[in-house]
Amino acid sequence: MKFQDIFVPRWQHSNPEVRIKAVNRMSDQSLLKQIVEKDEDEMVCMAARERLAELSKDKVRVET
Q: The whole model's pTM is what?
């Protein structure tokens, strides 16, 4: 853990495992899209894509 990790949100943590856990709790779709586009760790990007898909499914169920 880096010193700066104390001051940043979990999704910006230096440890990819911490970022993945944060992504799995997120509901902000625009932020998840940014993570997919900009995070350097492929596993974090994949977790963000999966979370976006989950949120999209929930949205469709509510609308029908």
A: 0.85
